[in-house]
Write a structure and sequence with these properties.
With 466 residues, the chain is an alpha/beta fold. It folds into three domains: 255 residues, HUPs (Rossmann fold, 3-Layer(aba) Sandwich), CATH 3.40.50; 101 residues, Anticodon-binding domain of a subclass of class I aminoacyl-tRNA synthetases (Four Helix Bundle (Hemerythrin (Met), subunit A), Up-down Bundle), CATH 1.20.120.640; 50 residues, no CATH class. Helix content is 48%, strand content 15%.
Amino acid sequence: MQIYNTLTRKKEEFVPIVPGEAKIYACGPTVYNYIHIGNARPICVFDVLRRYLEYRGKTSKTVQNFTDIDDKIIRKANEENSDYLTVSQRYIEEYKSDAKGLNVRPADVHPLATENIDGMIDMISALVDKGYAYPAENGDVYFSTLKDKEYGKLSHQPIDDLKSGARIAVGEEKKNPLDFALWKGAKPGEPSWISPWGKGRPGWHIECSTMVKRYLGKTIDIHCGGQDLIFPHHENEIAQSECANGVPFAHYWMHNGYINVDNKKMSKSLGNFFTVRDVAEKYGYEPIRFLMISAHYRTPINYSAEIIGQCKASLERLYNCRGNLEFLCAHAPEGAKDGEREIRRSLESHQDKFIEAMEDDLNTADALSALFDLAKDINTKLSISSPPSKDICTFALNLFNELAGVLGLLYRGKNDADEEIEKLIEERAQARAAKDWAKADKIRDELKARRVVLEDTPQGVKWRVE
């Protein structure tokens, strides 16, 4: 598999440290609010990465953290006259609810920053001892960026360019504008922990470095995140990790592109800021997931009501294909038929194109195209008018579900509305058998009002929602 590595700015063959295993770290949310649609993209994209690696026979260990102590969480707690624990735990649960709705599998480990304070203190102490960090008189501890000769290698920016945009804020006691906080001295009313530099709390960047080391080791295979994290967060992670541990931090860096709303940058000030929960309540979760993987992960994507509606319609095409296949499987004769070997080869060709796309830097856009081509081929070559065998129907259904599953799609199960529709269809069949045409027509009209399309076939009644 080829992966575009932000560190080297080129596609590289993915060669894990341990053959057949992949150690992956994905930066998780700072839990002070519901996740927005921009947060949903890395969550969905890198869930597909994990699924695909496993589909190709690799095992993976994935770690995604929760930043449960941060300025934003403290601010939210103060606004609510609450505390950071109450706020962070509430939004961790809300995140889990949204992630489940998006069909994102839980990571193998979801560590909390506050569970790893001792490890952070140990790493900061190592950096101080090695001369890469220094304590300030106010209890802060800063990383000295000029001591790291490779600083800037991920963002590919010369140190002078980085320095030109850096500032020293009021109350900071750092020596250089580019230096960043590893530890923040305690402030009145804020949570704090005891350290060699006095009471305080960790800086944001040290949290991820410490959790990577504890749960995955000093060097990992893949580090994932949004493009906005390249600098300063991921740049700082590399600096502090490699200076503390003396070995490379991550071999591959994968970053997803931005999301625009109606072709404008999403922001609260523009009034175009949407949480996943907002969108899901109107359109459902699955169209959001479809949108997030409908373009190559490194390209920007645009969100609008029209586009999310198109995603929903595209999903229905896939669901209809699967529904037709399930109907055929239920009524197909046992065994195989002449000519079906060619059909099988044709269907397998779409699997080959799917794999080819995913091997090329996780190209989910082309993989989706292969899935739709497979659906078209199935609809064309397997039909009720010339009933196929159970063998080929089962093969097609398994292949279709397999590829959709790699993308994490088509996870909607039957709901109460589906069961009610099927009950009405059964009542209509009974009415027709009793020659009660008036009742049968009345039920059909009721189903039509629900946008349910019926198709009477020799094998029974098929239905779909338009």
